[in-house]
């Protein structure tokens, strides 16, 4: 016992810890475009970014009922359990033990001769006489404890802790993605509603045009070909309306799935044509992404855990010290098992170093090194992707704003052209093909303007997600 204690003290005094390498710093640009404003819209809660109360209600419902988010919570529970297991590995494992055995020693064995000779002693009498066969009864506690000389077990606990933090960041990634996807689908739904309104308005105009050309055909001013062209245009526009209705149903069902419920109508706010973008959009600086975006923080935690795994794999090559103490009642007669004289205490210490299984350890080290490099590359990639997404969506908001202004003017001009073509056709100064072309151009331009308005809001949502917003 004293020798084992001295051995533990000696090894503890010359302890060599295998510390993992520090997480490398990934450089980022000084700014996204030209602005160096330190504020970021990613710091804003989604309730202050989105002005539509219906969208906010949908997001709140999804945060309470979304199944992917509930799955992420279970992953956190698993990671916490693994961390608890790694903490327990640092402590002795103690088991309550009760054993009973029976041995018949051969006459020409060390135990057989020794027991026979012992029974002949005058000092051995009564219950101290050794029976043959010899029972063996034990009731007490046995422990097993690996002394963490090299910090291997503490590094395993550290890796488990980092993975637990990574799982929590993974939940934030799900929340961010959920918030962004709901907003995207909601604005897509508003855009489809607006497309349906535009198409229905054009159906009414085209129906009147068809009636007018039918009257003119009766008067002999146009041929049946003109009537067929107007009727074909009307049928094509009606078929467009059917496709939009189906897209609305599909989009509503996608929202319902995110809300964790069966299909039902989705409440909408004002038309996308009346929705207002924020007056100003600030992105901050790229260095904030490393501290803000949950997927970057998750990749960083995974990298830290992978680096710790390398230190653990290196420590596996060193000797391990194991102690197996026990305390309990031990006797070969049941009648004296509960006697104080049957108390038994002992400890066994063993120092083991790998010799013939080093190929396995080398393989584990090679795997850990490769996984560490992979985690670092993934960490670089997610930062690079994040900066690129912010720049793309910042430019998208700016460019789509210019496109929307030009398309608004285009729609106004084409509407005037369509009115003029109707008047000229009625006065027999324009052909029916010119009327059809003017009506089709107005429809296409109005739908294009709605698509651009939708693209503006989708860029805003994607920028918010790219800046790490939505998980507060």
Beginning-to-end CA distance, first to last residue: 56 Å
What is the general shape? elongated
Specify the number of helices.
11
Q: What is the residue-mean pLDDT, rounded to a whole number?
A: 91
Rg, Å, rounded:
39 Å
Low-confidence runs (pLDDT<50, min 5 residues)? 1-16
The tally of structural domains comes to: 1
As a percent range, the share of strand residues is 5-15%
- Class derived from helix and strand content: alpha+beta
Per DSSP E runs of 2 or more residues, the count of β-strands stands at 6
Supply the CATH class.
Answer: Mainly Alpha
Percentage of helical residues? 55-70%
Largest sheet: 6 strands, antiparallel
What's the CATH topology name? Outer membrane efflux proteins (OEP)
Q: CATH homologous superfamily, by name? A: Outer membrane efflux proteins (OEP)
Q: What is the helix/strand order?
A: HHHHEHEHHHHEEEEHH
Specify the CATH architecture. Up-down Bundle
GO molecular function: efflux transmembrane transporter activity
Main location: membrane
Membrane topology: Lipid-anchor
Pfam families: OEP
């Amino acid at each position: 016992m004293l020798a084992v204690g001295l051995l533990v003290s000696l090894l503890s005094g010359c302890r060599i810890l295998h510390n993992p390498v520090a997480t490398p710093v990934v450089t980022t640009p000084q700014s996204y475009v030209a602005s160096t404003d330190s504020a970021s819209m990613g710091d804003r809660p989604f309730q202050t970014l989105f002005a539509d109360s219906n969208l906010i209600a949908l997001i709140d419902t999804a945060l309470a009922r979304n199944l992917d988010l509930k799955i992420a919570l279970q992953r956190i529970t698993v990671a916490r359990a693994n961390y608890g297991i790694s903490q327990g590995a640092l402590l002795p494992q103690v088991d309550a033990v009760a054993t009973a055995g029976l041995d018949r020693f051969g006459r020409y064995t060390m135990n057989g001769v020794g027991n026979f000779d012992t029974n002949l002693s005058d000092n051995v009498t009564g219950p101290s006489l050794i029976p043959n066969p010899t029972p063996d009864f034990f009731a007490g506690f046995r422990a097993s404890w690996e002394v963490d000389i090299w910090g291997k077990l503490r590094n395993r606990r550290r890796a488990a802790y980092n993975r637990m933090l990574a799982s929590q960041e993974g939940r934030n990634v799900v929340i961010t993605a959920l918030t962004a996807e709901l907003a995207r689908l909601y604005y897509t739904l508003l855009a489809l509603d607006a497309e349906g309104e535009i198409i229905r308005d054009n159906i009414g105009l085209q129906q009147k045009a068809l009636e007018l050309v039918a009257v003119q055909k009766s008067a002999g001013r146009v041929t049946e070909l003109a009537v067929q062209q107007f009727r074909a245009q009307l049928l094509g526009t009606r078929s467009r309306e059917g496709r939009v209705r189906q897209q609305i149903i599909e989009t509503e069902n996608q929202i319902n799935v995110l809300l964790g419920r069966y299909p039902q109508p989705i409440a909408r706010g004002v038309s996308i044509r009346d929705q207002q973008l924020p007056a100003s959009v600030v992105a901050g600086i790229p260095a904030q992404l490393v501290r803000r975006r949950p997927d970057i923080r998750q990749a960083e935690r995974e990298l830290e855990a992978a680096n710790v795994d390398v230190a653990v794999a290196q420590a596996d090559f060193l000797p391990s010290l194991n102690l197996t103490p026990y305390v309990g009642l031990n006797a070969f007669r049941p009648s004296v098992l509960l006697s104080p004289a049957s108390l038994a205490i002992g400890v066994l210490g063993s120092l083991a170093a790998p010799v013939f299984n080093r190929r396995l350890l080398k393989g584990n080290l090679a795997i850990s090194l490769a996984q560490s490099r992979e985690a670092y590359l993934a960490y670089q990639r997610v930062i690079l992707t994040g900066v690129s997404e912010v720049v793309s969506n910042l430019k998208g908001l700016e460019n789509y704003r210019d496109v929307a202004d030009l398309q608004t003017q285009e729609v106004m001009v084409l509407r005037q052209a369509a009115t003029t073509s109707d008047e000229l056709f009625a006065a027999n100064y324009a052909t029916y093909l010119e009327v059809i072309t003017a009506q089709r151009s107005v429809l296409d331009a109005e739908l294009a303007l709605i698509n651009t308005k939708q693209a503006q809001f989708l860029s805003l949502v994607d920028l918010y997600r790219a800046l790490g917003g939505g998980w507060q």
